[in-house]
Each structure stands twice: as C-alpha cells, then as structure tokens.
Amino acid sequence: MRKTYLLAIEGKNRDRLLDAAKHDIRKYIKRERAKALPAGVDFWDFDCKCGASEATASAVPFADLISSVDALVKEGGDQFYVEVVRKHGHRAARPTAAGSEADAQ
Predict the structure, then answer these.
(1) Distance (Å, rounded) from C-alpha 24 to C-alpha 81?
(2) Is residue 28 within 8 Å of 84, Cβ to Cβ?
(3) Cβ atoms of 57 and 51 closer than 8 Å
C-alpha cells in the first residue's frame, strides 16, 4: 500500500480524516496478515515508510508506524504519505539460557 492521505478537505473534520486514515492502514495490515503463508515462511512482516510526502518519506519500524503518523500530524501538515509493503518473516531462534544458569550458580 502506497498512499498519500489528505487532512485538509473542505467540509470534513481533520480529526475524523486522521482516524479514517489510521483505520485504513490497520485494515490493510489485517487483510495482508490473513493471506496464506508460503512454505518456509513463519509470518508476514512489513517494510514501512512514513513522511510528509513520498519524496521525504523515511523508513520506520512497523511497531512505530501509527505513532510516526501522529507525530507528523502534530507538526501541522495537511497531508502525509504512508507506504506499507508485505514481506516474508522468519523467526530467529532464542538464545539458550545455559549461560545465565551458570552465572546464577
């Protein structure tokens, strides 16, 4: 999803437009997560970019996407750009706790 959301539309409340944009982003993520996983893939991960425009968008962690949108809106912009691209995710093995057990004894 690559989309520019406008927040200054005549006759529309700015806060309602922001809420609708956040809902649209969350709905897209939910729809993409529901798709079947290919063999060898553990989960769907996302590459995200956010900025005032497409040219100024910078990469943000997926967990911070909505908070970065809020930060952009607090700066007073009339629009913001969001890019969310699905990618394959692979779980990493947790480190063993053997080293911490040896330290405890």
Answers:
(1) 13
(2) yes
(3) yes
For residue 99, name the pLDDT band (cuts at 50, 70, 90): low
Q: What is the pLDDT of residue 14?
A: 95
* Cβ 6 vs Cβ 80: under 8 Å: no
Whole-model pTM?
0.83
Residues 24 and 30: their CA atoms lie apart, in Å, by 10
| Structure-token match 């100024």, residue found | 56
The range of the structural domain enclosing residue 68 comes to: 2-104
Measured over the CA atoms of residue 61, residue 21, residue 15 and residue 55, the dihedral's sign is positive
| DSSP-derived 3-state class of residue 57 | coil
Residue 90 DSSP label: -
Number of domains in the chain: 1
pLDDT by residue (tens digit) across 59-73?
Answer: 999 999 999 999 999
